[in-house]
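Open question from group meeting: does this chain pack into something compact, or does most of it stay loose? Before anyone orders reagents, we agreed to write out a predicted structure and look at it together. Recording both the input and the output here so the notebook holds the full record.
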Amino acid sequence: MLLSLPEDSSLPRGEALHPVHVPGSKSVTNRALLLAALAPGTSRFRGGLEAEDTRWMRQALTDLGLGFKEQEGTWIIEGGRRPRASAPLWLGASGTTLRFLLPWLALKAEGPVRLEGDPRLFERPLGPLLAPLEALGAAWEPNAQGAWLRPATRTPEHLDLEVDARLSSQFLTGLALTAAALPGGGTLRWTEVASPSYLTLTTQWLQRFGCEARLEPGQWIIPGGALAPRDLDLPGDWSGAAAFLAAAAVTGRTLRLAPLDPADAQGDRAMVTILEAAGCRAHWTAPQTLELGGPLQRGLNADLTDCPDLGPVLAALAALAPGPSELRGLHTLPLKECDRLDASAELVGWLGGQAEVIGDHTLRVAPGPHPGPRSPFDPRNDHRMAFAAAVGGLRCGGALRDPHCVAKTFPDFWAVWRGMLGC
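Structure tokens returned:
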């Protein structure tokens, strides 16, 4: 697949890009789906993300005996039942699906559950989540194709756990969601947590389902027995919006995106602040419509501890910036769908820049000359690396292998991308 800003585009440089409608948020959709499964009664959602990761979650809930159907764009979930697997659960490459489901299945499932997926899914860290579940009586039996999960023989009334969350906040989120469904709720504690903004996001959605969870420094207090079904419109995805915002910064054009919630707890909304600090202009033209205009005036200087998924797109943008950049807080990137820290450094080089990886947490980027003809970029079957390559292609052209990997979270990405450019 060729990457470039079409020379025959109907939009001359400097004029507005075509407006973009961003898809639903994967992070919110998978949290909301599991909360609806846990809450006794009927929940209804509109605006949920239609993509591989959320499809695996919906199918898993169906295979576990939860009622799920779709009517005229509304998802209807019958929650409150104990999960019982009717077949092996295929989870693809969805880390959120696996890590969110594990505590619920380990403590509540009626009988063993077979979990399968892409090999990379089971290579990613799980030990810090499995340790407290095994201490409660669950058993994890992995093999080459996946694993058997044998649930605890007794469901606890409440959870009181110390969790090692240095590698992923999803360990805490999965335990918190299940704790909310227990009669006595739970208290979770930790010393250090990766991507702490996702705990804020989970707290926001627990509260929207009736659980008045309290997030404190190093501690999460989750009342039990209060979850209730909801009828909700799910928000747009700040992660999916990132590449399009970067396109405005690269091209110097103005772009409008919707629907986005300025009060959303999604950490990736920091993209706007990062671009504003580098000279872009942003304002809200309507309650859920953001307008952002470029170009970048300087390099990027950002701590991505709360939003590491922005790393690849910002690395591509840094390679095209008018000055050097430094991106920090990237220590979880090697543990994602691919080693995104290494892949981002490779992408910078593919775009003609120079990348220096410092430890496992910082990427320094110096822009360079136009790279000219070269081999296609390999996104390593990672959707966010493909999004980042699209941003770089606006200035540097080139070709991309495996463009279809975007289906994990944004199946229509390339159609929306071409529509933004007017081609």
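Observations to bring back to the group:
The domain at 26-233 is CATH 3.65.10.10 (UDP-n-acetylglucosamine1-carboxyvinyl-transferase; Chain).
Confidence is low (pLDDT under 50) at residues 5-12.
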